[in-house]
C-alpha cells in the first residue's frame, strides 16, 4: 500500500528552471493529494508522470502566489481533458472566490464538480475525512492567513495468519467474521487467541506539511511523531533576523521543530533563490536533526 511523496516544486518566490515553486503530491494508496500548486505545477506533474485523474484533493496552504498561481491553469486543463471526477479543494475562504472568478471570466462551468472545504471554518486539528486518509489543518504564523496540513492514512486491515488457515481450514464466511473482529472458536469449543489468528496491521503512516511560517512551537501538537515532516527553510541561520521579519523560517528553525515534535524524518524546502544549492541549509539542519533531506523537484520519498 503506497504512501509516498513526490516533490513537484521545491523553491520559493518565482519558478526557476529545475526549481519550481511549492507543490507536492502525496500518494496514499494510489489516491493523490496535491499540496500547494505554484506556477507551472502542471508541467512538472507531467514531467514526473503524475496521473491527473488520480488527484482527488488539492490543499492550498495560503494565497501567496508561489503556492497557488498554478491552480487556474491546472483546473482549466482538467476541464480541457474532460474530467468528470469530483475534485475536492481545501483552502482559505478567499480561494473559493478566486476559483469562482476564473471560471466566470471564461464564462463556463467546469466539466467536473468541485467541492470546496473552507479551512477558516475548521477548528485547529479538526479532520476532513476521505476514503483512504484524513486531513487536519492547523494555523501557521505568516504575513497572511496560512495553514499547515497533516495527512494520515486510514488504519490498514489485519492479515490472517497462514498457520491459522492451515491448522483450522476455516470457511470463507468464518474468515470474514474474524476480520470483522468476531472471535473464532476452535474444534474443542475454546476460543483461539486473536494473536494466533491475525497479524496486526502496521500503524497508520502520516505526513505533515508546514509552509510558510516563522518558527512557531504551537504547531508541535499537530505534527507530533509524523513519519515525515516537510518544514520550510527559506534561509540559513545567519539570516535569522531577516527570516523572522519576513515571517519565514531558517534551516535551524525547521530542524529544531523536527526534534521537539519527535518526527521520524524531515524534508526542508522553499529555498530562497539566493542559494544555488541547498547544501548549506541541509548541513545546518543535519547538525541538529541528522534525518534531514533537502527537497529537489522530482524527488520521491516512500514511507
Ligand atoms: Zn512561499
Ligand atoms: Zn508565503
Describe this structure in words.
The protein is α/β, with parallel strands linked by helices and 303 residues long. The chain is built from eleven helices and 16 strands. It has helices spanning 41-47, 65-68, 71-80, 93-106, 162-168, 172-179, 194-197, 220-223, 240-245, 251-260, 279-288; strands at 3-9, 23-28, 31-37, 55-59, 87-91, 114-118, 127-129, 133-139, 147-153, 159-160, 198-199, 206-210, 228-232, 266-269, 292-294, 300-302. A seven-stranded mixed beta sheet has the order 6-5-4-3-2-1-16. Strands 7-8-9-12-13-14-15 form a seven-stranded mixed beta sheet, with helices on one face. Strands 10-11 form a two-stranded antiparallel sheet. The longest helix has 14 residues, at 93-106. It is globular and about 75 Å long. The model has no long low-confidence stretch (mean pLDDT 96). The structure holds zinc ion (ZN) (2 copies). Residues 62, 64, 142, 212 line the site of one zinc ion.
Would you summarize the structure shown here?
This protein has 303 residues and is an alpha/beta fold.
The rough form would be described as globular
Average pLDDT reading = 96
Distance between the termini: 10 Å
What is the string of helix and strand elements?
EEEHEHHEHEEEEEHHHEEHEHHEHEE
Q: For the largest sheet, list the strands in their spatial order.
A: 6-5-4-3-2-1-16
Q: Look at the helices and sheets and give the structural class.
A: alpha/beta
Radius of gyration: 22 Å
Relative helix content: 25-40%
Low-confidence parts, pLDDT < 50 over ≥5 residues? none
The overall strand count is 16
Instruction: Give the count of helical stretches.
Output: 11
Main sheet: strands, sense, barrel: 7 strands, mixed
What portion of the residues fall into strands of 2 or more residues?
25-35%
The hetero compounds bound to this protein are: zinc ion
Amino acid at each position: 500500500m503506497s504512501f509516498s511523496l513526490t516533490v513537484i516544486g521545491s523553491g520559493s518566490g518565482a519558478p526557476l528552471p529545475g526549481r519550481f515553486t511549492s507543490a507536492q503530491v502525496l500518494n496514499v494508496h494510489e489516491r493523490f493529494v496535491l499540496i500547494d500548486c505554484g506556477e507551472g505545477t502542471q508541467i512538472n506533474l507531467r514531467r514526473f508522470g503524475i496521473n491527473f485523474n488520480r488527484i482527488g484533493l488539492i490543499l492550498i496552504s495560503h494565497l501567496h502566489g508561489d503556492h497557488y498561481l498554478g491552480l487556474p491553469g491546472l483546473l482549466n486543463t482538467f476541464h480541457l481533458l474532460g474530467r468528470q471526477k469530483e475534485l475536492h479543494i481545501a483552502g482559505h475562504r478567499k480561494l473559493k472566490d478566486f476559483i469562482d472568478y476564473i471560471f466566470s471570466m471564461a464564462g463556463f462551468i467546469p466539466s467536473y464538480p468541485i467541492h470546496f472545504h473552507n479551512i477558516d471554518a475548521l477548528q485547529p486539528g479538526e479532520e476532513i475525512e476521505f476514503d483512504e486518509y484524513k486531513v487536519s489543518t492547523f494555523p501557521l504564523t505568516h504575513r497572511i492567513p496560512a495553514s499547515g496540513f497533516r495527512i494520515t492514512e486510514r488504519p490498514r486491515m489485519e492479515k490472517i495468519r497462514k498457520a491459522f488457515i492451515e491448522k483450522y481450514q476455516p470457511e470463507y464466511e468464518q474468515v470474514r467474521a474474524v476480520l470483522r473482529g468476531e472471535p473464532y472458536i476452535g474444534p474443542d469449543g475454546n476460543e483461539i487467541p486473536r494473536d494466533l489468528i491475525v497479524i496486526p496491521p502496521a500503524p497508520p503512516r502520516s505526513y505533515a506539511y508546514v509552509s510558510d511560517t516563522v518558527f512557531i512551537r504551537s504547531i508541535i501538537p499537530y505534527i507530533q511523531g509524523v513519519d515525515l515532516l516537510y518544514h520550510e527553510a527559506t534561509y540559513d541561520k545567519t539570516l535569522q533576523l531577516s527570516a523572522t521579519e519576513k515571517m519565514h523560517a531558517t534551516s535551524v528553525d525547521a530542524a529544531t521543530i523536527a526534534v521537539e515534535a519527535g518526527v521520524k524524518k524531515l524534508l526542508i524546502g522553499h529555498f530562497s533563490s539566493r542559494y544555488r544549492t541547498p547544501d548549506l541549509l541541509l548541513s545546518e539542519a543535519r547538525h541538529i536533526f541528522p534525518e534531514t533531506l533537502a527537497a529537489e523537484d522530482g524527488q520521491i520519498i516512500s514511507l
